[in-house]
């Protein structure tokens, strides 16, 4: 019994009991929350993420399963086996990926590789779901009663003979004793979008990358310096871009006809150099580094494109303005991903409207493919293809068809348009200008046979320290009246050259002739 004197003091035993009860309650709540979190995470792993984890290519179990069965073949358009799987006599895996020793480097940047780590590139990555062992869908009741596990074989649009010819033409380009390192070429069937050849150097041998020895794979991979833009793992045709120089004048010419056709008749006075507004810069025609000084040129568009007159095109660019220049470039595919069926396709860049607005020098230089313009060889081949195909750029692709292991057709590529870059009227007008480039312009010296009826555009972009080097380009399609193929050739970082034709012309002539002979 408590005394009256104790009525104002707390009862210590009771308070300690309450405190202990609160602690137990909090601990209980905490344990319940931990259980709920554990329950949610288990459900997340075992239900929501179960499929992705089970099929993750980095999962060793997945690799073991995949390599316990063969992988589908990759074939060239002429039936040469470029990649296949062979049984192994030793090691952890039952099958190993192999690449044809005669075509491994030739097709390395297209076919790619498939390592034991689950790392894939090229066609190996793009069409992995077909190449790896999988269960085909049941189409009949009989299918439900038989084994439907299969692999598919992927046939490319690229012919080994033409690919070899293109590679030789690029590799043998040796102006002034300076090999065409980083050079490349693309051949595209402009009516279907099929890539008939695509090659750049340097290339690499993918065979060490598919060893069953993980240490050997890592050593081979690191030797290729994968983090460098100079790595041979990076294609100079569809992943890496260069200043396109005057080949871009075909796009600017299209902008003139599409958006301000009156500019085609503007007769620009002959000039060797012009002063650019909004700056203290002076723009000169090619030849400004020679003792004779820059070329003097001018006239209407029908004259200045075959001449490849920089001062005239600079003025055309400033007259067209930011919106017209940018919209025409984007209509031809700049600033957007080209839907080629290969991973990591590079984006070709053209300045934005904001970058060009109130910036006359940028408008001037961008109009002839300098300053902030970059383009892949693939992009410029599609520019030529769009002009040759009445303004329509077909979707480029390297897959021709896919068949299962029994030879049954699984999928066949159906040609489809990608962009309508310009109108047939404009395409016809620019084609006429590009034919003049060959007959009496900067490509006249190349020596294209008249029977080929070639439409072309040369390009030289000054680059390197103090603009002492040039990217030498040429784009072309033929026959101009009914084109079959479009070709882009780029030979970057060469000793200074006026028009690019003396460097890019010989490989272009060889490649275009071979492509015309190879294309029905």
End-to-end Cα distance, whole Å, is 114 Å
CATH class of the domain at 245-397 and 414-518: Alpha Beta
- Please state the average pLDDT score: 89
Q: Tell me the overall shape.
A: globular
Gross CATH architecture of the domain at 245-397 and 414-518: 3-Layer(aba) Sandwich
Task: Please give the count of helices.
Answer: 16
Using only C-alpha atoms, the radius of gyration works out to: 31 Å
Amount of beta strand: 15-25%
Structural class: alpha+beta
The H-level CATH homologous superfamily of the domain at 245-397 and 414-518, spelled out, is: DD-peptidase/beta-lactamase superfamily
Helix content: 25-40%
Describe the largest sheet.
6 strands, mixed
| Low-confidence region ranges | 4-8
Physical arrangement of strands within the biggest beta sheet: 3-2-1-6-14-15
Structure report:
The protein has helices at 12-48, 50-54, 60-66, 108-111, 122-126, 128-131, 160-171, 214-223, 249-259, 301-307, 310-331, 353-356, 360-366, 377-388, 424-440, 501-518, and strands at 74-75, 81-87, 95-99, 134-135, 149-150, 152-156, 184-189, 195-200, 268-271, 273-275, 282-284, 297-299, 392-394, 399-404, 409-412, 417-420, 455-463, 469-478, 485-495. It has 520 residues and is α+β, with helices and mostly antiparallel strands. It has a domain at 245-397 and 414-518: 3-Layer(aba) Sandwich (Beta-lactamase). The strands form six sheets. Strands 3-2-1-6-14-15 form a six-stranded mixed beta sheet, with no helix packed on it. Strands 8-7-19-18-17 form a five-stranded antiparallel beta sheet, sandwiched between helices. A hairpin with a 6-residue loop joins β10 (273-275) and β11. The longest helix has 37 residues, at 12-48. The chain starts with 11 loop residues before the first helix and ends with a helix.
